[in-house]
Amino acid sequence: MESDRLQKLYIDFASVVFREGFLDNQYTQLQQLQDESEPKFVLQVGTLFLEDSGKLINGLRSILDQQDVDFEKLDACVRKLMGSSASIGARRVKNVCMAFHNSCKKGSKEGCLKCLQQVAQEYLLVKRKLETLFKLETQILAAGGSVPLLSQ
Amino acid sequence: MAVDAEAQFHVLAVDDSLLDRKLIERLLKTSSFQVTTVDSGSKALEVLGLKEDQTSTPALSPEHNEIEVNLVITDYCMPGMTGYDLLKKIKESSSLKDIPVVIMSSENVPSRINRCLEEGAEEFFLKPVQLSDMRRLRPHILKGKHKEQQLHQEENSNTNHIIISSSNNNNMSNKRKAMDEEVLSERTRLRFSSSSLNVI
Q: Tell me, what's the ipTM?
């Protein structure tokens, strides 16, 4: 049956995503909040995260482009990104944010630039994973199946 | 007037992050609360019927432009008015001070937590907020309603004028007398992140 095949594909793919630390149990929490009254909850929150984070990362880049880096402003932005990544369960992004936060506190421009590069990279990676998960989830629901809940 | 434990309570959620607003709204609705979300402390005060520079609501009847709010849950870090500032304004208002307030934050800072509790916050939730945290809200709402009931009973049975001290809410020991054991353990049991073993 089509939905069975898709569910297996989903579980296989998601297991790797979880194992490699791109997402954690917070993502599962979000799945549990989805039901018939809010069938697109995870998709909506996930899309919000991707949009917000993209803007935040661009913002970080422009602050670091300045001659005199405003580390407080930078840190405020990093903490926002850390917060949203924690809310969606994007663990690797959150971890880079923690290192980024420390570099901000130290006032290290070099450290911050390195972290920016890493966070941009992790963002792109988790973006691809999330988009694939969303696509599979939509297909499973369209085929009349239910989305398997994942656990770490 | 009995308090119906199954009654739908109305929670006002305050957070400047759209993502977090969506999340807290979903958590609250899933837990059978009625929800209003706003993105700032000043909007929260508007919903509560209080202008920023007022300390008491104007003499309007309750149905006029006001929704009854049973609990306020607010993010700590917000631009402009922080969650702490909002908490203070609520506790300083004669009409709003009995509304329970819960603070949320993504940062586990013991001094921040203490400051909020001392100012009268009922609880401090570490973000991301979980569904299990929602269970801790109802006791605070019911306790507030019970206090309201008691107040009405006292007013009705005494012929003498009762002076109610407005600093009662900040006095921890007075609060403890009014609380039963279950609520007390809810209040002191805080969520800490598993990576830090901070004991307050």
A: 0.91
